[in-house]
């Protein structure tokens, strides 16, 4: 059976009264999802993945119509999205995400300890604000939705106007699949409209927010979430410059390879990646900016996600190019409406340090700022001035001493790359997508298996009768999940 | 060598300029602590514990002079505090707190996966606001300080004026012990004064705050932390009513035992516990409030922590007692200045539901509100109306069906007790001290080993050369800590 209310909400622009309906349904659904088994939720996630894969030939062209990202990229992104849903299903079944912990009574501790058993539980209904630049993977059925559903949190997604039809169709498919797989009514709803989004973050039934988008919009919603009578966590992935440091030795050894690699990374998808390498530090006098412009070649305009994004890109480029400390080395800052074409800018560490407010800004689109440094101290000062980023990268030669570089890159970023370009974010246990503010608003990741921790809170049961405990905390561990017992980690029974 | 600047800061009331000195010292210390080994930090924690134990005969009387909690309780609290420091040392050496995760490259995933290695790193300098009611365990060298230092975060403690001399002396002892054990200058500083505390939460060098105290003060500081240009996490443990539900069967079976147990719990330490059972639900017509008043007996005034706390207690009692829906069953609301004497109040579920804003308030001191319910539905409605609490408890008979009760208790609390009283918080891996707002401001615990997670953020290293990786992420796992490798949990090498 398909939940009719979900489909209605998914296909009309709701007013706040409709949001109340969705939120009440989510609250009722939570009574079921909070008590659901890991196996049930894994089945829901897999059903959603299967349904999306089955509709690939419909969804990919629809996404391309709205987002102009090309069918190859979008086919890959849909595959990534459904693989992600299935990975969360696997992780739920594995059971570590509950952090199940058993402490038996101990009269010898200070103070004496009763029987304590702890696990993580779902927070409650979660609001998800998808991104413009990933119509599948960071959107209606993306990582925030998948990780929230995996933990047992109902989800209300705010549809993104940049791909509204795709969002509605994706929601229909997901809602139907969830209902067919036995998930409760109200577990997943799409809502639309700016005002509704604002009301969503403030709605009493919402217990957390996942957001991917701009610093300006994200910070405004963060402020709303934090100033509620009952503040809720707002997990925002907002803005990043993603500095790249190229050492002298690396540039000497393989300048062409570096220029080609960087050109591919910063122009990919019209530069519309939150991990876009926006600032590249190179030794002074290396003429790397010119070499990069050559590698980019004749830049042709590429349609951007929205006219607004294209306008913002053009405006950002204009401001940078108009700065006395910046040269336009490749491409043109005269952008066509709705499109972006690759631009290589160049500056110096001195200029950047002198005016960080003007030069260290995310310019969302196919551009990068090549910054020449006199010595490593100056380069590291620029990295520090960039501050919180999703990624920071270094290109060095094998055996080079990186002992001064790595601590600084680690200080500013959530992911530190060696010899790589930051675009492309694998979905795995060890992934970290989120760094110091303003790149994100929390010390968590929005990509990878540990993204689930954002939507859980710990509960301890003290001296509970065996029969009221969740299966995962019962003495004999019927599901065989990994647990910590009396301080000692006990691996899953099926593992070695 | 003792860090002279720490001692100066610990013995004078600093102005913001002195805070800048402390914060700069903490930043410099962080450069060392972030690169320190687990073994080094474990040694620091143990040195602090040993030094505090060695000064027990000086510290306990000093604490009793200021806090009036009695030497027996304070001796136990100091032992708990030093045991806690040593437990964090053990946990740091065990290594799970780093959540070390290794994903080897895999070209078959969608998208293809590079080599990714992730662990949790310290956030940076942390501010700690200790509690009035635990001069040792939730104060200068309490759980927040211990868990922050354990992860490698320098700590700046705001001294509590209710036990300022004890705070200064404790800080001197801890600072000297840390310095002797090789911890860097600036790793631990005490500051004083209301204005300094406000400035501390807003100081650019501070990366997180641990707070235990009132809802009013805590929320004000939370708002400051959240509205910074760069918001930082504020882990506040604020306020709780801690509902207790007694079933008809339990009351029929052992009313005297329950009255005695409750009397001991709510009057302990003059009721000055954040886990004080402030509201107890009993079947209507059971005359349990009268029985409880008998169990309390002749209540004599006990000195409270501060005159302000005593005044607030008297005012809160007066407001409750003046409410048409409340009866004073035992003790008197005419309290002596500076003291609190036990008071038993009684009301009904109907009255409470009708005016939750007046009746469901934390009254910090030796009082409890016995609320009579007509049936279980009504009792659960009251629990829901109480909302976010540190604890929720049920007293039932063996074999009673708790399937409707447990979900509601779990919904409102971080710790759910069966047959126990909530005062007394064991320090262990499975402990959870923190529940839905307003009992705390984050989905984390301030007691127990997982308290460390509050002061860490994840960092992933992509394709890093072996030599730049932290030891915990090197391929051969030299420290033998538990890790997740390619999705599979690998227990520590020394464990079975």
What does this protein structure show overall?
- 2 copies of one chain form a homodimer.
- Chain A is of the alpha/beta class and 496 residues long.
- Chain A has 2 domains: 250 residues, 3-Layer(aba) Sandwich (Aldehyde Dehydrogenase, Chain A, domain 1), CATH 3.40.605; 176 residues, Aldehyde Dehydrogenase, Chain A, domain 2, CATH 3.40.309.
- Chain A is globular and about 75 Å long.
Question: What does this entry show, briefly?
Answer:
Chain A is built from 16 helices and 19 strands.
Features:
disordered N terminus, 19 strands, Aldehyde Dehydrogenase, Chain A, domain 2, alpha/beta, 16 helices, Aldehyde Dehydrogenase, Chain A, domain 1, 496 residues, five-stranded mixed beta sheet, seven-stranded mixed beta sheet, homodimer
How is the topology of this model organized?
Two copies of one chain form a homodimer.
Chain A: H1 4-11, H2 16-33, H3 38-54, H4 56-67, H5 71-94, E1 101-103, E2 116-122, E3 126-129, H6 143-151, E4 155-158, H7 164-180, E5 188-191, H8 194-202, E6 208-212, H9 215-226, E7 234-237, E8 243-246, H10 248-267, E9 279-283, H11 288-296, E10 302-303, H12 307-321, E11 327-330, E12 339-340, E13 343-348, H13 349-354, H14 356-359, E14 367-373, H15 376-386, E15 389-395, H16 405-412, E16 413-418, E17 456-462, E18 483-485, E19 488-490
Parallel strand pairs in A: 1-18, 3-4, 3-6, 4-5, 6-7, 8-9, 8-15, 9-14, 13-14, 15-16
Antiparallel strand pairs in A: 1-2, 2-17, 10-12, 11-13, 18-19
